[in-house]
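Submission checklist for the structure archive. All mandatory fields must be present; incomplete records are returned to the submitter.

[x] Identifier: Zinc ABC transporter substrate-binding protein
[x] Organism: Planosporangium thailandense
[x] Residue count: 312
[x] Sequence attached
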Amino acid sequence: MIVISSQSSGVLRSCTALLTAVAAVATTCLLTGCGAGPAPAAADGKMTVVAAFYPLQFATEQVGGDRVTVTNLVKPGAEPHDLELQPSQMADLERADLVVYLRGMQPAVDAAVDQNATKSALDTSTVTPLRDAPAGSEDLGRDPHIWLDPTRLAAVADTIANRLAALDPAHSAAIRARAAALRTRLEALDREYATGLAHCQRHEIVTSHAAFGYLATRYNLTQVPITGLAPDEEATPRHLSEAASLARRYHATTIFFESLVSPKIAETVAREIGAKAEVLDPVEGIEPGSSDDYFSVMHANLTTLRTALDCS
């Protein structure tokens, strides 16, 4: 016969309560993923955002202000298309309050979002319709370079603001005010481009690859790409011959190449027709240590275009 004293009974009740609490915590962790840990900057009350590449980082920082900590998956000066994610970046994606990316731009990011961050992700390609790959391009899919049309970037920023405001309702008014201010600046930039490129001797831009379709369409220019959407696509002799013929037909004085890729293709065509090769920046990233941002690079592009196209 086992006799349980009142003191022993109290101990048993305490142990039972402790086991119940432990079980509840374990259940909660299974449901919510305690093992992933808190978002990196949770201690300071900011939202943690992972941006897939620079223009999305820029828009998120402009809209989020002091309410966000934004991590760019692409190092400054690196070309974003062929990004390979590190394990630490995969963990950042999983823990982030919001992941801002553009499906079709970076296959590795698309796959990582599908695996780890579907609930927190914002696919900015759903905000504004993407263009088909240029006619004659060997690329499949659609042109992702939407930010080169400032009005499209404004739409993306508004959508980011909506997501951030939902995550941080106490500061939603300030978030939306910053988005409105960014839209005002982007619309002013749009007017500068429209005015600056309205009266030009030429309207064709010969580019090393087809990154400038949105800019060309917005401002009534014609993009003549030497290769397709992929910046590392090899130019065949046929590509070079066709580009040189078109450049001669349009009396092009400048062949454009990008800041983050080799200028060799553009320089080859430029030599062939007696033109010069210059940078037209797709604003996919900012060089390390540079003080530039989206607006300063876009203003520099406008100056370059006006000179190359002989605009008044």
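[x] Structure attached
Curator remark: Residues 131 and 143 are 5 Å apart (CA to CA). The longest helix spans residues 6-32.
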